Amino acid sequence: MGFLTLSTCVVANIQAGYLLLFLLFCNKADSTLRYSVREELAKGYVVSNIANDLGLEPKILTEGGAHIVSEGTKQYFQINKNTGMLLINERIDREQICGEIPNCILYFQLVVENTLQLFRAEVEILDVNDNPPIFPQKEIVITIPEQTPPGTKFSIERAQDLDVGSNTVQNYLVTVNEHFRLDVHTLNDQSKHVELVLVKHLDYEKTRKMSLQLTAADGGEPQRTGTAVVQIIVLDTNDNAPIFNQSVYKVKVFEQNGKNYVALKVTATDLDDGPNGDITYALSHISDSFGRIFKLNNKTGEITVAEALDFEDASVYQMEVQARDGGGLTSFCKVVIEIVDVNDNPPEIFLTSVRSSVPENALPQTVVALLNVKDRDSGGNGDIRCSIRGTQPFKLTSPFKNFYRLVTDGQLDREKKSAYNITIIAIDDGSPSLSSTAVISLEISDINDNLPVFTKTSYAMYITENNNPGALIGCVVATDEDTSENALLFFSVIEKVINGFPLSHFITINSHSGNIFAVRPFDYEQFKEFAFVVQARDSGTPTLSSNATIKLFITDQNDNTPTLLHPSPNDSSFSAEIVPRNAEAGYVVSKVIAVDADSGQNAWLSFHLLKTSDPSLFSVGVHTGEITTVRGITEKDNNRHTLIVIVKDNGQPSLSTTATVKVVITENLSGSNLEIVEEENPDEYDSHLTLYLIISLAVVTVLFLVSVIILLMFKACRIKKSSHPNVLDQNLRSSNIVSFRTSYLDSLARGNIHQGYLQEVPSQDPAKTSSCTEKEQVGPHSLLIDLNNKNEFLQDHQPAANAIPPSHSSYQRVQAILTRPMSTDWQEG
Ligand SMILES: *[C@@H]1O[C@H](CO)[C@@H](O)[C@H](O)[C@H]1NC(C)=O
Ligand SMILES: *[C@@H]1O[C@H](CO)[C@@H](O)[C@H](O)[C@H]1NC(C)=O
Fold it and tell me: What is the DSSP letter of 585?
């Protein structure tokens, strides 16, 4: 009992408010009732039979007016007066009354008023585990940097349990996990200290957040628990380097892919977060030139083409790309960009050596040029074939691949083609193929392989006699198909002797122009033609030459007046023609005979009666020169008549001479003639004259006949000797002897007649004929053709022959002369 009291007193001390009352009861009462009861019991719960406990009659309680006086404010207990049972009056919450005090005791007094008895009772309220542990925060947030070392402890505010004793928190539990365990220490006051201990590295990259359930359990029966969520937030540290998703990137890029083409994209990831995971890319280990060709976007990692790619510059690019995170950690990857060739390069032709010219006599296979070809593309794109465009006398030979020789393939002839443009085509094997061309201009240099060529092998030239010294006779034209010096021609004449004089005595040639000049006047009556050879010589080495024959014809000029043969001009008085009076009309009185040293028209004589005493009686045959009577002579007519006959040649201007013919009409021709003559000319001298006249007439006639005979003989001679080369010279010499008749006949046939056929023919090619315009003259041979083909030609032009009718042999003579120029001998000569 004493122990109880003492302990009661101690409690009383704590509960200062009850101290005095307690001491009073301690002194006056001698016993204390003790009960213990669980909290949270329902009202009316019987704690004990207090009457029995006190040893009192229940009726005392009833009659004595017993009641319970609680020491607190609340009346937790009451007494059933009839039964003496102590009952719970109100729910008792230990935690409310005592809090954490382990021994919770309620005190009350039982007062029996009638007997003034006071009994003290104390009721220990026993704890019932009616409160769970409660964490002050339902969510506990702990932030932990990921690199925190294991063993690090994180304190956790402990859970509260209003219960006491074993009903308070006894244990803590945490969700099973690999990173944390709980460390619970019991402190001196029996409270627990809870710590979360890191047992394994946290990796932000794996776990950024953890949720752990922390459970606090009390020791009550039944056990109650409280939970809280521990949120573990892992803080990132830059513990991760960026990582490329490939260590080597390989791409193929076609070289024609232009600027801004995205070749590839490198990607690196960094597990770190924030700046630690911000990656910038950079090219490293790359030369400047590479760096110009590719650009790296330092944010996206795209590698783009920055400059035109050229397989031929580089077919593969290798580079390293660095990725760096914000924390400075780096990693590298390798990028290999292969450039795929596209046939984008045409072949190139390099002429290593080129001859600008080859001589035309170059042998086949003569090398003209050396060349090589190149194609910067690879494979088939770089395989080249070479050829020559068109057909040319050249070909390509290839001693080595891509190396060519351009050689001649056949005979060249500068005169046919003097220059070539040789187009060489190089074509590659790509698809589509590309090609390029080179043109080699080649000149064919001249070799003196062509003779000078005269425009004609023989020329006929004409010059009118009495020319001025230095007169232009004509010109020869020669061309040479070669060029420059090989075609630079000089003309010369090949010396010979003509009529005892050297050729240069007569003519000279301008060595450049080919003009031929007369050195002195020619006289047709002296000689009519001669031939010589002109040589054209080029200046090549060796020099080449060729010959042309010039036949020069001297044409007649009307420089001779007709010469009277009958009547003799010297003694006209002597010549009188005697006409019988009985002569009828048409009686031939006389014949005027004249000759002309000229030829042709110039020697074509006509006769006209210039003056007569009786125009009605006489007439003159225009061509014959015959004086005839027009009518019969009458008695009235005078016996004497003087006729003046004019003899004109047909030259321009024409020359003329006059003949005076005296006519005496006699009655009787036989007897009275002399008489009359006597009468007329009593002078004896006259009759002598007549005699002389007759003699001279006879002489002339004989001479004429002799001439004709000689002429015929010569003609016969010439035909025999026509193969003699010097026929012309001979001819010229002999012509002196017979000049009179031959000149007459020749000129009749050729000299003057052909003048009507003179033409000027412009030369074929003015450029080639130098300064000289060639006089194309229709020569004797064309006349011959006329003679042969048109017999009427001569007949038409024959009238002059009536003056002295040409015999048949004269015709032959004419033809013979005309034929000569056409004979082969002459051409060769
Ligand atoms: C070669 O070509 C040039 C330039 O086109 C041209 O003047 C010349 O006439 C040509 N020559 C030949 C022989 O075709
Ligand atoms: C030209 O004539 C001369 C002299 O007659 C002769 O020596 C020479 O061989 C001739 N030339 C030709 C090409 O016929």
Answer: T
3 state DSSP class of 454:
strand
3-state secondary structure of 680: helix
Q: In b/e form, how buried is each residue of 105-134, taking b as 16+ CB within 10 angstroms?
A: bbbbbbbbeeeebebbbbbebbbbbbbbbb
Mutate to test the pocket of ligand 1, among 356, 391, 421 (most ligand atoms within 8 A of CB): 421
* pLDDT tens-place string over residues 594-650: 998 888 888 899 999 888 887 888 889 999 889 888 888 888 888 888 888 999 998
The rounded Å distance from CA 533 to ligand 2 centre is 9
What separation in Å is there between the alpha carbon of 413 and the centre of ligand 2? 27
3-state secondary structure 574-619: CCEEEEECCCCCCCEEEECEEECCCCHHHHCCEEEEEEECCCCCEE
Specify the DSSP class assigned to residue 420: E
Residue tagged 């056949």 (tokens): 410
Ligand 2 within 6 A of CB of 630:
no
Ligand 1, closest atom to CA 421? Answer: 1
Give the pLDDT band (50/70/90) at residue 164: confident
Q: Kindly report the pTM of this predicted structure.
A: 0.44
Side chain identity, residue 80: N
Domains of the chain (ranges, CATH numbers) = 16-126 (2.60.40.60), 139-235 (2.60.40.60), 243-340 (2.60.40.60), 348-445 (2.60.40.60), 453-555 (2.60.40.60), 563-827 (2.60.40.60)
Ligand 2 center to residue 490 CA distance, Å?
15
CA-CA distance, 615 to 621, in Å (whole number)? Answer: 14
Alpha carbon distance 77, 67 (integer Å) = 10
Ligand 2 atom 6, closest CA: 547
Angle at 12 between CA 8 and CA 15, to 5 degrees: 140
Q: Residue 394 Cα, ligand 1 centroid: separation in angstroms?
A: 17
Q: Which atom of ligand 2 is nearest to the CA of 545?
A: 13
Report how far ligand 1's centroid is from the alpha carbon of 364 (Å): 23
Concatenating the DSSP letter of every residue in 702-715 gives: HHHHHHHHHHHHHH
State residue 712 phi and psi, 5-degree precision: -65, -40
- Sign of the alpha-carbon torsion through 785, 787, 792, 794: positive
Q: 825: which 2 tokens?
A: 């001998």
Residue ID of nearest Cα to ligand 2 atom 12: 546
How far is Cα 813 from Cα 738, in angstroms, rounded to an integer?
13
Q: Which two tokens stand for residue 746?
A: 């020749």
Which of 84-98, 312-326, 680-694, 770-784 bottoms out in mean pLDDT, i.e. has the lowest? 770-784
Token representation of residue 23? 């001491």
Site to probe by mutation for ligand 1, drawn from 394, 441, 442 as the one with most ligand atoms within 8 Å of Cβ, is 441
Is ligand 2 within 6 A of the CB of residue 546? yes
- Residue the block writes with tokens 């956790």: 156
Beta-carbon count within 10 A of 759 CB: 8
- Tokens representing 62 are 């009833």
Distance 764 CA to ligand 1 centre (A): 28
pLDDT in tens, 494-539: 999 988 999 999 999 999 999 999 999 998 888 889 999 999 999 9
Give helix then strand counts, H and E, for the chain: 13, 51
Coarse DSSP helix, strand, coil percentages of the chain, rounded to the nearest 5 percent: 20, 35, 40
In Å, how far are 580, 735, 809 from 711, measured between CA atoms? 39, 10, 9
Contact 755, 555 (CB under 8 A): yes
Pocket of ligand 1 (CB under 6 A): 419-421, 441
Element (H, E) at 784: helix 780-789
Which tokens is 441 given?
């201009």
